[in-house]
Specification:
This protein is an alpha+beta fold and 417 residues long. The chain has six helices and 20 strands. Bound molecules: zinc ion (ZN).
């Protein structure tokens, strides 16, 4: 096992640890350790809400989740010799849930959760149709996930970090703040908001204290969006075996990681759509000097996805076009087309006895594939969403006999509401 450079005590909050991570992006957040090119190291990661979501049957914790404290990130790790203009090579050697024996109330070990966030606290991809909060707890048995809140489904996890990235330069951070503020100004009262401003309340900035803390907290970027540095990309294919190439914007690169997912569907559509968990990740870093210019990767990471994924040979796919549920024609709106494909899939799954919320949670959490299939055929773009038929323990395909009903004897347990 590689040396643990960022340990977490499962019985303590993120801010009470021996080494304290961070939950904002800023070039002046001090590194917690320095690593050499070629070095492998282990990092413990807290689930993104630092233990505020509980293994129970109520969604009150999701409904009132403290969004100002996310994401609990481990790091930053300075890489010796890294300079702006380099590409930072990051290999994901291993990634998994916290071992059962390290059990603690805040770890999220042996289980994870998927949440539908309420419209007034986070929202989600289909928040117009699902304005209230729901939650499903998933149990892990080896690589398999099952949920007492969603019967009839089990699948192999594609474990990956939802969030990983390098620190922005002061110039890049200023650009983020400027463009995101400009977007917010177009509709400042929108719920959910168009973007999130820097927020000192709830900020965790590693070892920074006093006046430095106050200054950095006032300008540090929130971690919700993916940006040029990587960040919250929520790419389900960043599994074990992945190699990512991140742009380096500050001396040392200052790599951070967190928001581990046991599994996730493309799009992470419920906003907390993955199976969120605490865990560990083993990384190895290296440098390509001046790689940003050499490869034209001046912003946004490129990567070689891992090859650890469940093998499915059959998929039931749903398509959607850029026409609203009210019948209004939109021009090549792929976001809308993908929403419509997801809504068709949800509607279909309810015919088997699932509630719409259960179906929505399945699309967020299971290894669902999403694609933009056609983006040029005016006026409709076409998006598709693919469900592996094997994740259901009944026949989910259409047939002359009509849809089977799940758990006819027991009825369908309600999703945590
Ligand atoms: Zn996440």
């Amino acid at each position: 096992m590689p040396e643990v450079l960022f340990p977490l005590d499962s019985t303590k909050r993120f801010t009470e640890q021996e080494i304290i991570g961070h939950n904002r992006w800023h070039p002046e957040i001090p590194p917690v350790a320095e690593v050499r090119p070629g070095q492998s190291f282990r990092v413990h990661c807290r689930e993104w809400f630092d233990g505020h979501i509980h293994n129970d049957d109520s969604a009150d914790d999701v409904r009132h989740a403290p969004l100002e404290i996310v994401h609990a990130l481990s790091g930053p790790f300075a890489v010796r010799g890294a300079e702006p203009g380099d590409l930072l090579v990051v290999d994901i050697l291993d990634v998994g849930p916290i071992p059962q024996e390290d059990s603690g109330p805040l770890a999220g070990q042996g289980w994870g959760y998927t949440g539908i966030f309420s419209r007034t606290n986070g929202g989600g991809f289909l928040t117009d149709f699902f304005p209230d909060a729901y939650k499903a707890i998933w149990d892990f048995t080896g690589q398999r996930a099952t949920s007492r809140h969603i019967p009839g489904v089990s699948f192999t996890g594609m474990i990956h970090p939802g969030l990983m990235g390098t620190a922005p330069s002061a110039k890049l951070l200023a650009r983020w703040n400027e463009r995101e503020a400009a977007l917010r100004a177009t509709d400042p009262d929108r719920v959910p908001p168009l973007s999130l401003p820097p927020l000192a309340d709830g900020a965790i900035l590693g070892s920074l204290r006093g006046a430095d803390f106050d200054r950095v907290a006032a300008e540090a970027a929130r971690t919700a969006p993916p940006r040029e540095n990587g960040g919250n990309q929520d790419i389900k294919n960043l599994t074990k075996g992945t190699r990512v190439f991140y742009p380096v914007y500050v001396p040392g690169a200052n790599l951070s990681v967190g928001d581990l997912h046991f599994s996730q569907g493309d799009g992470e559509i419920t906003f907390c759509g993955a199976i969120e968990m605490g865990g560990y990740i083993d990384l190895r870093v290296d440098l390509i000097k001046d790689g940003m210019e050499a490869y034209g990767v001046s912003e946004n990471a490129i990567f070689l996805p891992g090859n650890v994924a469940p093998q499915y040979s059959e998929w039931l796919a749903f398509s959607g076009i850029s026409v609203t549920t009210d019948g209004e024609q939109r021009y090549l709106d792929s976001q809308l087309a993908f929403q419509r494909a997801c809504l068709h899939a949800i509607d279909y799954l309810t015919r088997f006895g699932y509630s719409p919320e259960q179906a929505y949670l399945i699309l967020g959490a299971a290894p669902i594939e999403g694609r933009f299939s056609g983006v040029v055929d005016i006026p409709n773009s076409c998006a598709t969403v693919y469900l592996p038929t094997a994740i259901f323990d009944f026949d989910v395909r259409p047939s002359a006999g009509g849809p089977a009903r799940i758990d006819p004897g027991r009825g369908v347990p309600k999703t945590a509401r």
